[in-house]
Every structure is written in structure tokens, then in C-alpha cells.
TrEMBL record, chain A:
<dbReference type="InterPro" id="IPR006059">
    <property type="entry name" value="SBP"/>
</dbReference>
<feature type="signal peptide">
    <location>
        <begin position="1"/>
        <end position="21"/>
    </location>
</feature>
<dbReference type="Pfam" id="PF01547">
    <property type="entry name" value="SBP_bac_1"/>
</dbReference>
<feature type="region of interest" description="Disordered">
    <location>
        <begin position="26"/>
        <end position="48"/>
    </location>
</feature>
<protein>
    <submittedName>
        <fullName>ABC transporter substrate-binding protein</fullName>
    </submittedName>
</protein>
<comment type="similarity">
    <text>Belongs to the bacterial solute-binding protein 1 family.</text>
</comment>
<keyword id="KW-0813">Transport</keyword>
<keyword id="KW-0732">Signal</keyword>
<feature type="compositionally biased region" description="Polar residues">
    <location>
        <begin position="27"/>
        <end position="39"/>
    </location>
</feature>
TrEMBL record, chain B:
<feature type="domain" description="ABC transmembrane type-1">
    <location>
        <begin position="95"/>
        <end position="300"/>
    </location>
</feature>
<keyword id="KW-0813">Transport</keyword>
<dbReference type="Pfam" id="PF00528">
    <property type="entry name" value="BPD_transp_1"/>
</dbReference>
<feature type="transmembrane region" description="Helical">
    <location>
        <begin position="282"/>
        <end position="304"/>
    </location>
</feature>
<feature type="transmembrane region" description="Helical">
    <location>
        <begin position="132"/>
        <end position="152"/>
    </location>
</feature>
<feature type="transmembrane region" description="Helical">
    <location>
        <begin position="221"/>
        <end position="243"/>
    </location>
</feature>
<dbReference type="InterPro" id="IPR035906">
    <property type="entry name" value="MetI-like_sf"/>
</dbReference>
<keyword id="KW-0472">Membrane</keyword>
<protein>
    <submittedName>
        <fullName>Sugar ABC transporter permease</fullName>
    </submittedName>
</protein>
Amino acid sequence: MASISTIARGVVAVVATVTLAAACGSGSKTKSAPTSQALTGRGPITLAQGKDTSGNVQHLIDVWNKAHPQETVRLIELPESADQQRQQMVQNAQTKSDAYTVLNLDVVNTAEFAANRWVTALPKDQFDLSKFLPAAVRTGEYRGALYAAPWKTDAGLLYYRKDLLQKAGISAPPKTWAEMQTDCGKIKGVGCYSGQFDKYEGLTCNFSEAVDSAGGEVVDDSGKPNVNTPQAKQGLDFLVQGFKSGMIPKEAITYEEEDARRAFEAGKLVFLRQWPYQWALSNKAAKVKGKFDVAPLPGLNGPGSPTLGGHNLAISSFAKNKATALDFIKYLTSPDTERANLLASSEAPTLAALYDEPTLQKKFPYLPTLKASLLNAKPRPQAVRYNDVTTAIQESVYAALTGKSTTDQALAELQSKLGPLTQQ
Amino acid sequence: MTTTTTAGPAAARRRRRGDVQGSGRLAATLLSPTFIVLALVVGYPVIAAFRESLYQRGQGLDAQGFVVQGDKFVGLRNYTDIFTGPNSGAFWNAFWNTTFFTVVTVALETVLGVAMALVMHRAFRGRGFVRASILVPWAIPTVVSALLWRWVFQADGVANAVIGKQVLWTTEGFHAKIAVIIADTWKTAPFVGLLVLAGLQVIPREVHEAARVDGAGAWAGFWRITLPMVKPVLLVAVLFRLLDVLRMFDLPAVLIGLHKDSVETLTMIAYDEATNLRYGPAAAYATVLFVYVAVVAYAFVKLLGADIIGDMRQARTARPASAKKKPLTSARKVTT
């Protein structure tokens, strides 16, 4: 599905390089972007986000519109792929258009949008941030200020075949990589482990996860790259050795989310690192229905640290009626709305308390596991030039996984490439 | 007849000389809307892109962490960076990929396209069905066909089942290039076939019959008669394909993926720069590609095509002349 949007990208590519380039060349010489203006003005606004696949966002908006007939919200659906959503939002900002009011920003784009002053800072004191998952809040911050309110979150989980583990006499899912390998040794004829290792954003997620789970970090707290460490090497080695030893099947180097899901559902894997969305889908797949469960990701010496995904809500700097926008964001991030959204779309909420509600746990048995994972989760590097950062990561990690360079070479190269990209 | 022909040239010359200024001005006036539209739609973007390629957008951050706004004039630095900068490796890789794809796919498509045209030209039962089925790939949008081929080439896909070996086509390596070449040839050989078929259909049957009477075999007939006579059309088809492949983007991007060095083309680099808000370098890449395409087209027309437009013009003027062969020859006889 992601690829379909590449079409439009393809078409846009040449046009973009010529027209867009021309368009911004003339306009951007004037300075004076708004820093932190007051959020004023009431009236109709818009919400720009990716495709509303569950149809529930429109429903939430309808509820709001009924209560606020003077301040109605209109949903603008952007393409499904994350890259293209970002591109549309960037174009909207480049032309200083007021078409988009509230932006449903991917967590990795906060820094870029904040640093370019495309989104306005939100008043921190008007959100009860202590109620939100701390890691999710951090994804909405840039240099200590809140630019996007956490709305939906996401973290990798370990899907495992409980029927196969039971048959092999294993009582609990593995907590460490070594345990996982031992478990696989007892189960014959099925591939052991996979994640998403094609050269795309998923590889960045899987790599950061491996590094974090080995006790390392891709970028440290001050924003400096830190991959030339023994921990990072152990993390990357887990993946490289996995491919070499056959613990990870060879074809996993071509897997994106859906390929990995298909392989798991075809019974080809015992363990799979995957996002929570697969839960509902695999429970409809004939071969694995009722035969799998989820656990927190394993790590080097204990439970691992998954990579954070998700979407936050920000207000475009060029929009009108920002006071309404702020109210609307508060409405979307309220417990009632997040609960309704979880029930309707099974998208993970950012309010910690919802994970403990028994009725919700009954419907989504994986909620406690997900919460445990989320409390351990780490964001991907928060860089203004995130696109360049993730490209550099993919380049080096892919080379290591395919045996083009050694782990040491790959990490040394990555460290030197990330240096200038993360200067802030 | 005699009088008109003898009087003709002198009168015509006089009229022509008198007409030059008047009709020229009229022609310019009549054509001016076209030129204005062309200047707006083609001229302006090209010039604006070139201008943009001389600038760089601020990438630095100020003390509060905000991006420093504004463009900076950098002269030709974007260009020197392309050829000799730290990322020049990516450029030359993409340059060779683009050139390699162009040479290989166009060669394959020309051979296959001509073969398809010869088959489609034959009169046999079910010809309509064959023609339609050959054209189906051309009718499918590139991205859709790229997705279809992605399924064919995935790890447990049809391609591996057919060859009975586990090849990971979408990973880096020469096999990724092969996948792109196969998919592109599948899609666009019918285009060449269609144009060549049109060329075949205007070859008068008598020429072939005459050749056969003279004892020419099938091979000689193809080599000496068919090929020379479809050459103008074939060259146009090949030129179109060249220009098309040189700016290939969607097929490798969807089939193999972005950022894969084995199949990265020049448009993909330009796209990538633009997505990362480096519009200056993006415009520079686009301009380099533009110049490359123009040079290839010019060289092709000069070396092989020997003036395609001129050929057509000659053909147009020659045809009515040959139709009126008899009176003309008699007239010439009288004048000389």
C-alpha cells in the first residue's frame, strides 16, 4: 500500500524539483516567522492526517461538530504513506497556506516542523502531561517546549507461537536474545525470528530497537550520535549474526511489515517483532488463529526497549482560529475520546490509565504487555534533519546485514555520518 | 502546360521575395500565442530551476534551535558538489545506472518491439486477439505494473518458483537491475511494437512482391526492404524510449525501493534532495539530467536519425510529387 503513494511521488518528483524549487526560491528570502504567538481566534478549522482507515476520526469530528456548531472541524485526508503525508504538510508550510490547522504529525517529524517554525508551541500548562505515557510526551517536545500533543502511540512487540513453544516444553516467552535462540533450537522445521529489514524506515526502527535493547543508544540525550560503542555493536551483531546463523531467515532482508506478517501467518516463523496492529489481523488468519500471543521484546540481558511509533497533534503556524484548534486537540486527547478511539480503531492511546481498564483489557488482551513495552520504549533520534539521519542509518545497517561491511565498519561510518546531521 | 512551367520559376521567385516579409510577420503573429504558452510552460520552469540551482537554503540552526531562514547565493557550488563533492559517488552511481538501463532496455525493447510488430502485422486467425494482448502491458500504469512485478519478484514469488532457485531480487545487487530491466522491457516493448506496426502498414505490398519475384528470401526482404522502410518510424520510437528511460523513476522506486544503490537513477536522487528540502541541489541535479537528456537526444538525431523532422518534411513533399510523376517529368523535359 505504501508503494501506491510512491506513484504520485514519482509523478511529483520531476515537477517538484522544478516547480517547487522555483516557487520557494522567490518567497523564502523574507524572515520573520512567528515564534510563539498567542493561540487566538475561533471559527472553523481543519484536521490534516493520513487516511482515516477505520472511519473513526470522522466520527469523533462529528461528535465535536455537534457540540461546537460555530467551530466546526473538517477532516482533510492525506495519502496513506508517512513520507507523503510529511511532504504534503511541508508543502502546506512552504506556501504558508492556512488550509491545514491541526496537523497529525508522525512522531519523528516533530523536531523538523518545530525548528522550521511550521508549528506553534503549545501551552504545556494546559495539558496534564503526567497522565500521558512519558515516552510519548517526549516525542512531542523540541528543546524542552511542547509542539505536539501525544495522541496515538505504537511500540514493537514480540509475537510468538505459543502452541509451538508448548509442544517444545517451553513455559514462558524468551526475555533475552540468548533464550530466544535456545528456544528456537528446540523447535525444528520453522524459521526462528524476523522483524522488518528491507531498506526503509522499518529498518531504522529495528536497528534502534536492537541497539537500545543491548543497553546502547543511537543518539544520546544531548542529541549527539553514540553508535561507536560496544553496546551498539552488540545490538547490530544480534541482527548480523542472526542472518549469518540462519536464526533470521535470509528472505527477511526483503521484509516490510506486511511481508513479515504474511510469513508469520503462513506458519514460517516462531517469533516476530511487529507492531500491535497485527493482533487483530492474525486472529483472523486460519493457520495461526488462537495459537499466538505477544510479549515484550527480548534484549541482550533482559527485556528489550522497543522503538516508539505514533502520531501527535500540532497546530500549523500559518493557520487561523488557533484557540479552537487547541480546544479540539484537548478534546481528542481526553480520556473519553482516546477510549472511544481505541475501541473503534484499536490504535494504542497515549493516556497511561486506559491500559489498566479491565473492560478494555478484556477486549484487547495485549494491553498490559503493550503498556510494559511502552514504559520501556525509546524514541528514534529526534533530529531536525530526520530524513537524512534515517537514510544514513539504513545505508550503514543494510550494508552490515548484507555482509558488505563488518559491524565495526558500519558503525564507525554511521557515527561519522550522523555527526554533522545531528548538530543542533 | 509548357507556358506555365517556363513562366513558373521566375514568377514564383518574384512572388516569394515579395511575400517573405508580409507572410513572415503574419506567421509570427499567428504563432505568437504558441510561443507565449511555450515560454510560460517550458521556458519559465527551466530558467527558474536553473536560477534555483544557484542557491542553497539555510540548514543551520540559531541559538534557540530554529532553522536560519533564507536562501544564499552559492554560484556553481551545487554543480561542483554534484561532480566532486562528498556525495559525488552517489551521483556517478546513479549516472551509470541511468545510462546502463537506457542502453540495455532500449536495445531489448527495439528488438522485441520489431518482432512483435512483425507478428502483429501478419494476417492470421485471431490477429485482433494477439494485437490486443501484446498491447495490454503498455496500457497498465507503470506503478501498477511495478507492484505486480514486485509480487512476482518477492522471496516466495513466481519468479523464484519458475527458476527453482531462491534469489532475493529486491535486495542490492545485479539481480535488482535485471528485475528492473525485465519489468521495463515487458511494459514498453509493446510501445515500440505499436509504432513499428504503424510503419509496417504503410509499406506498399508491391515492394515486397517485387522483391520476392527478384528472388529475395525472407531474411533479405526484412533486412533490405522492411527495415529501411520502417527506419524513420523506428527511430522516432527509439528516441521516445531513450528520453523516457533517462528519466525513469517510478519503476525502480516501487519495484526495488528508494535508496537502493543498485537501481538508483538520477531522478531518484533529485527527488530525494527535494524531499529533504535541499531545493538548490535538487534543481542542480534536475538541470544536469536535463542537459544529459538534451545531449543524448541531439546526438541521437545527429548521428543516427539524420534529421528526423527533415526526413518527414521530405517525405511529405516527395509523396505528392511522386503521385503526379508523369506530368512533372514531361514538364521538366520541356524546360530543359
